[in-house]
Amino acid sequence: VSIHARIYLDHNATTPLVAAAREAMAAALDIAGNPSSVHREGRRARHVVETARDQVAALFGAGRDEVVFTSGGTEANRVGIAGLAAGRPVACAPIEHPSVLGAAGPGVVRIPVDGDGRIDGDAAVRAARAGAAVVAIAAVNHELGVVQDLAAVAAAVRSAGAHVHVDAVQAAGKLPLAPLLAVADTVAISAHKLGGPPGAGALWIRPGVELAVSGGHQEKGRRPGTENVVGIAGFGAAAAAADVAAWPAVVALGEHLELGLRRLGARIHGGGAPRVGGTINAGFPDALGESIVIALDLAGVATSTGAACTSGTIAPSPVLLALGLDETEARRAIRFSLGRANTRDEIDRALGMLPGILDTARR
Ligand SMILES: Cc1ncc(COP(=O)(O)O)c(C=O)c1O
Questions:
Q1: pLDDT of residue 66
Q2: 363 CA to middle of ligand 1, Å?
Q3: Which of 163, 200, 215, 317 is deepest in the core (most CB within 10 A)?
Q4: What order of strands is seen across the sheet that includes strand 333-337?
Q5: Atom number, ligand 1, closest to the C-alpha of residue 308
Q6: In which residue ranges of the chain is pLDDT below 50?
Q7: Burial track 262-297 (b if 16+ CB lie within 10 A, e otherwise)
Q8: How far apart are CA 166 and CA 119, in angstroms?
Q9: Would you call 268 helix, strand, or coil by DSSP?
């Protein structure tokens, strides 16, 4: 057991709360009003929600009327995809997050990916021509960090007559969102992936695009239900603190880690495609990812075998299987995902532990 603090390398699962978000949430906890009430307490709560809406709109680079708050990335994906589809078929790649696959429904049209996780743009256009009403694409893949060529694919899909929903949950805070808004109809983000709390998210909706939803009046009827004032307050503050200009430093740390992993014999999944940086999905010969994750955890390092929602199950990652890995190869995967607070010293310490941990995992 080391004297050092733990080393957190699982930021794609969730990120630590930033100080500004903590403060905004603490202040919002004491507001008694419902944001829909007309009295002073209600107006205070409304002010918190609308301040956060301005902050999230600024992160999107969009107008405040175009931003709808949701209970997270999962619901933002569902409101966008189901709202655009209105019961018609949806197309997406098998590497998408379970929340996208779930919203796309059982009739989903599958778009193939190559061995590095790049989606086949021509297949996406063919799906649109064949009647898919919506094509859903993650700007950045949660397990691989692969960045899709959305400028090309989304424009072609939209000119073929389909809507485009972009899951930007793993892109927000790392890449500018404006280029995504330029080609999408709806864009989903999540607070807890950028320093805000879990349980808050947002959907950007292109002006003029109508979503099929029903229920109460909140969020102009686009997402009914009393707003999560505290979570939204934290989300707004985190959005305001997000800084894509700080991301290249995380990319550099990730490159340092990746080099060290390659020297230890790792294969990098998605390594041939453009990636956002800071997310490294590696496989070591003859070592189960799960064993490495457990041993690293005991040694003080938090990592993942893939999407957090699939951990605890024995099934290999569907993302890696879609890349063409066989089950054994997919079970070797370990995902390191870095954040702004990580240091070079932490990466070096984690790398220093790995040879011994790999020995144990191989036994
Ligand atoms: C790409 C992607 N989309 C959607 C989600 C879901 O977001 P949330 O946890 O806020 O529901 C996640 C989080 O795991 C994600 O990584």
A1: 97
A2: 34
A3: 200
A4: 267-268, 279-283, 333-337
A5: 14
A6: 1
A7: eeeebbbbbbebebbbbbbbbbbeebbbbbbbbbbe
A8: 13
A9: strand
Pairing status of strand 90-92 against strand 109-110: parallel
How many CA atoms, within 13 angstroms, populate the side-chain half-sphere of residue 55?
26
Which tokens hold the place of 144? 């691989």
Q: Hey, what are 325's tokens? A: 């890995």
- Cα–Cα distance for residue pair 277/145, rounded to 1 Å: 7
User: Taking Cα atoms as reference points, which of 354, 235, 227 lies closest to residue 301?
Assistant: 354
For residue 215, what are the CA distances in angstroms to 220, 225, 313?
A: 10, 8, 35
- Within 8 A by CB and 6+ apart from 298, the residues are none
Model confidence, pTM: 0.96
Please say if 92 is a catalytic residue: no
Q: Which two tokens stand for residue 296?
A: 């690293």
pLDDT given for residue 1 in this prediction: 45
312 dihedral zone (left: phi>0; alpha: psi -120 to 50; beta): left
Kindly provide the residue ranges of all beta strands, DSSP E only, lying in 152-255, ordered along the sequence.
163-167, 186-190, 201-205
Residue appearing with tokens 């009647």: 131
Handedness of CA 329, 270, 95, 194 (dihedral sign): positive
Q: 70: Cβ below 6 Å to ligand 1?
A: no
For residue 192, the ligand 1 atom closest to its alpha carbon is: 10
| Set 309, 326, 327, 359: catalytic member | 309
Among 146, 170, 305, 309, which is best to mutate for testing ligand 1, by the most ligand atoms less than 8 A from CB? 170
Nearest CA to 336 among 288, 269, 240?
269
Distances (CA, A) of 125 to 27, 90, 287: 48, 12, 39
CA distance 46 to 38: 9
Closest C-alpha among 301, 247, 316, 311 to residue 279: 247
